[in-house]
Amino acid sequence: MFKRKKTAEPFDRENQKPTIRSSICTGEQVAGFKHTTTGKFTEIMVIRNQKDMDEFLSRFGILESEIKKEW
User: How much of the chain, in percent, has pLDDT values that exceed 90?
Assistant: First the structure.
């Protein structure tokens, strides 16, 4: 009935970069954030289709051009 307006969840833009990790063998993709100094990857969600990718982008206020892809 009444939906709340979604606001972007905060993340440390100075020290974390949005990253998609993709498996070479299975093609499974996981969206998350990689810490720039330590290299630690924090998983947020599995990306199965474009709808999941759009949800990740809108949830954190990220542009698709900002995302780095790793294998």
Answer: 82
